[in-house]
TrEMBL record:
Keywords: Isomerase. SUPFAM superfamilies: Xylose isomerase-like. GO terms for molecular function: isomerase activity. Pfam families: AP_endonuc_2 (PF01261). PANTHER family: 3-DEHYDRO-D-GULOSIDE 4-EPIMERASE-RELATED, ISOMERASE. This is TIM barrel protein. Residues 23-258 form the Xylose isomerase-like TIM barrel domain. InterPro entries: Sugar_Epim/Isomerase, Xyl_isomerase-like_sf, Xyl_isomerase-like_TIM-brl.
Length: 281
């Protein structure tokens, strides 16, 4: 059965007790879980947040990125090793949270470009790191849900075709894929065919409008999306991912220069929207 989640990034990229009131209100709206960025260096905060979420009967998922200093497709083996070590660190933090899914484009460095198209060697390097990370994740019963993101953020995997290729090359039970409606709206030529392509590996879905605002108030072809996911027998999370300027350091890092919608409008209307679309599908 599908569950509906909300990523806390419209308010904060942190994991401290300051976000606890957000969980209270999201639970009152009806959400099954919350998603948060795994990046805060204070490891004790993850257990505290995970415990608080469990008290509210909220599940958690994590989202995670890597940078140039720990890039899994760097030509230098020492940098690739740092990437593997950082992914293992994220798996440990997800375990502290009680999460069963870590999603994100950590197949390669976010915002780092070679000024060339991806090479077969880079796919192989990524797969080697991910295979080892998958073995580590398996011990914690955590699924790594790789994300294809748009051409302005990465170059290794922009489409479901490229992402499926990488997952197949990795060939590990705990290395799967996710579908993000924002990135697909930029990169794919259709909706049904890419979802059909990634269907065997699909473990997570981000619901995100073309402008990162309130789902249903933009240009994404939502009826086609939900119909295709229903036809694919997708039974995982539908998690809303949106951004704002509330956390300036994070906003600046991901090039968010304006507000898209009020965060609570996104949360409240977005939940109702997903429920209605699931019913129609």
């Amino acid at each position: 059965m599908n569950k509906i989640g909300f990523n806390l990034l419209p308010w904060s990229a942190g994991v401290s007790s300051a976000v606890f009131p957000l969980l209270d209100r999201l639970k009152s709206i009806g959400y099954d879980g919350i998603e948060l960025l795994i990046g805060s260096p204070d490891e004790t905060e993850y257990k505290a947040l995970g415990n608080y979420a469990r008290e509210l009967n909220l599940e958690t998922t994590g989202v995670f990125v890597l940078g140039a200093d720990d890039n899994p497709i760097a030509s230098e083996s020492v940098i690739r090793q740092r990437g593997l070590d950082k992914i293992k660190w994220a798996i440990d933090r997800a375990h502290d949270l009680g999460s069963k899914v870590i999603c994100g484009p950590f197949h390669s460095a976010h915002g780092s470009f070679s000024r060339a198209a991806p090479t077969e060697e880079e796919y192989q390097w990524s797969a080697e790191v991910l295979q080892q990370a998958g073995e580590y994740a398996k011990q914690a019963d955590i699924v790594l849900a790789l994300e294809a993101v748009n051409r302005f953020e990465t170059y290794l995997a922009n489409t479901m075709e490229q992402l499926a290729k990488l997952v197949e090359l990795t060939n590990h039970s705990h290395v799967r894929a996710m579908y993000d409606t924002h990135h697909a709206n930029i990169e794919e030529k259709s909706i049904k065919q890419p979802i059909d392509r990634i269907r065997p590996y699909l473990a997570h879905v981000h619901i995100s409008e073309n402008d990162r605002g309130t789902p249903g108030k933009g240009l994404v072809h939502w009826q086609e999306v939900f119909t295709a996911l229903k036809a694919a027998n997708y039974e995982g999370w539908y998690t809303i991912e949106s951004f704002s300027r509330a956390d300036p350091d994070f906003a600046n890092a991901i090039n968010v220069w304006r507000e898209y919608s009020d965060p609570w409008e996104i949360a409240e209307e977005g939940y109702t929207f997903i429920k209605s679309m699931l019913a129609k599908a």
